[in-house]
Amino acid sequence: MSDPAVTHTDPQPGLTGFVSDWSSDKTAFKTASWGKAMIWIFLLSDTFIFSCFLIAYMTVRMSTTEAWPNPSEVFALEIGGVHMPLILIAIMTFVLISSSGTMAMAVNFGYRRDRVKTTVLMLLTAALGATFVGMQAFEWTKLISEGVRPWENPWGAPQFGSVFFMITGFHGTHVTIGVIFLLLMARKVWRGDFDTGKKGFFTSRKGRWEIVEITGLYWHFVDLVWVFIFALFYLW
Amino acid sequence: MVDATHGPDAHAAEFPDVELYHPRSWWTRYVFSQDAKVIAIQYASTALAIGMLALVLSWLMRMQLAFPGFLTFIDAAAYYQFITMHGMIMVIYLITALFLGGFGNYLIPLMLGARDMVFPYVNMLSYWTYLLAVLVLVASWFTPGGPTGAGWTLYPPQAILSNTPGQESGIVLMLVSLILFVIGFTMGGLNYIVTVLQGRTRGMTLMRMPLTVWGIFIATVMAMLAFPALFVACVMMLFDKLLGTSFFMPALVEMGELLPHDGGSPILFQHLFWFFGHPEVYIVALPAFGIVSDLISTHARKNIFGYRMMVWAIVIIGALSFVVWAHHMYVSGMNPYFGFFFAVTTLIIAVPTAIKVYNWVLTLWRGDIHLNPPMLFALAFIVTFVNGGLTGLFLGNVVVDVPLSDTMFVVAHFHMVMGVAPILVIFGAIYHWYPKITGRMLDNTLAHLHFWVTFLGAYLIFFPMHYLGIMGVPRRYFESGDISFQPPSAHDLNIFITVMALIVGAAQLVFVFNLIWSIRHGKPSGGNPWRATTLEWQTPETPPVHGNFGRELPVVYRWAYDYSVPGAAEDFIPQNQPGTNPPHSEAPKKRRGAKS
Ligand code: HEM
Ligand SMILES: [Cu+2]
Predict the structure, then answer these.
(1) Interface of B with A in 113-152 (CB under 8 A)
(2) ipTM, two decimals
(3) N or C: which end of chain B has fewer CB within 10 A?
(4) How far apart are CA B527 and CA B536, in angstroms?
């Protein structure tokens, strides 16, 4: 007679494994802790938020009565006398993607319980993220000084400015939250909270190494969203 | 449905994740509590309190419709503010919050054999954010211009134009409050979903979960995917209002003046709103479906008919409800092919829904029906839901909807299906679980009084409205004046409806009295007054204490519906009772021909 509590123990491959995981007791995802399951579901919900923003943007762009300004021109910079379309955005994208790389390495060292390397890589990721936000601030300032406002801009459809500030602002907020979170968690890694299981200040739960990976999932998500914003807003 | 037995060492290891927070002071125990049961009660009391406001508003509206000019403080602006606040509070701040925040928090951990939600701290934040949202909403009564009168759908452009009541600040507070609600809900929703997926006790497989949990679970998943659209719509409308953007605002002339807006799309808002709004109907309906299934099975002492089908119907309804939203926009105009598509998907939802109704009826069939208050409310729900569902089939068709749209027929339809029906389940559920929450029974006589007045009264209120609607009486009208197509009898009917509404309202006061009075004076209930099988009734203490299940978590050996098993010592076998059913056990029979 089998134990009702354990429908199976080892993960099975393919569809069978999927079905037996889902129909088993205790957990549906055998390898995911509570925290990881939570962040995945949160990200799914957040995906819907960003999708709504982007779909709304596309609708507005198609329905507006005035011409849409040309993003390659709007986001061009003169560097050393050379006119470079989208150069800043390209650099920003590069920075953010690189930060995903450092984050992935941080997670890797987190698994190996390497406090020093994990801390350094998390700080590096945070620094890249902060650079991204800084460049975004520069971009905002430049556009504002050129007369772009949420309700108008010198080149065409007023929704251009609205969408720009709203979507990049919302994404920038995500990055900023990520940076703050990275700094806080880097401090905990450094102090060794996750080795001693020190309790969190608010949650009074034991700190765990997996938080590094959870932070990483969030960070990669924010990165991925940027790719869509880049493609749909700047390149279209 | 005992599919396995097992040895005595079942209680051995708990999850490594489990780590219970222990409150140390009065404040962390009762106010800033992280215990899902306390949070549930906080959610429920807040929701019921704000719901009373919405109820009072409905009386005021009915007074105005029946006796125009009698209450002098109701002018057109006030009437629209009442409508808006009534609708929004009822749908979101009462029913959604009560089903998911209230029942979800109370029942999910208890029914699944968990000690608490998986992230108690986040769960606590969820409640306080919800409370903040409610306070912001209420605050709009005290700002210049009062709350918004845009209708609960908040359609732009009119929602933020200068002649709409509450456009000074009411609309802003409404949008902020909704955004807060979504944020608060997300924190709670993560808990409900992860607890169901990852926090069950030993032996509690997904297919042994009580249908209540299934309903709340799927509704929460839907809410996590539908509320984003509301969130985005609110953010964009806030920008339109505060920053002067034109997401939803086309070029407009108002009072001879060209507004500074240009090129926005009001239809975009409608799409976003209804992408949230239609799933919202099922967010309040699915928990009701689940709860009703359990009430019926328990109080008819029979296993639920077609458990698997019930689960799949819930899942399919949840999925389909994301592709029907534009049936609310037939009169906004759309490509006829789209209208066709949305009409078809809308009608298809009737199939899984009908399956559920049949299964409820078949569960009742030859059951040992105890007509106690929870059962009465459950039966009333079935009737009412079928009724509202049928008019829904009418309205789902474009050609029928277009003339009926914006008439009292629609008001009657949605009150039946998403107003009265879920509220009946909420009542039934409160009568059912109150003994577990307080350890005392609610007074039976008052309960019967409450039931009959509410049930019959609701029909007397909303049935005539169908007729009014077919006659063409419009919805959202402050006063109908002398409209020739409306015979005088329509007015008499209006007076009748209003009197009924006041009586039904008074019956709710009886209910509230019963709730408060019985906390101290109710008959002690014992741990399992309904002789039910699910885990929340098997707790060592009633009301359950912190940690829910004493030293060891229960282990689950069977599904939730082992009622009247032939040969068993009692007519119910709790889910945590080990062993197979008695040897000659025939029932609960698997459906003939079904492999499962
Ligand atoms: C005794 C119970 C109730 C009465 C007497 C009542 C009465 C009314 C009245 C008179 C209106 C305005 C109709 C019009 O002129 O357009 C209305 C609108 C509405 N009610 Fe109720 N109601 C009740 C319960 C509920 C419940 C439980 C819900 C929960 C879903 C609800 C949701 C709504 C909504 C969404 C609207 C539409 C608001 C709008 O048009 O913006 N009502 N109700
Ligand atoms: Cu709908």
Answers:
(1) 118-119, 121
(2) 0.93
(3) C
(4) 9
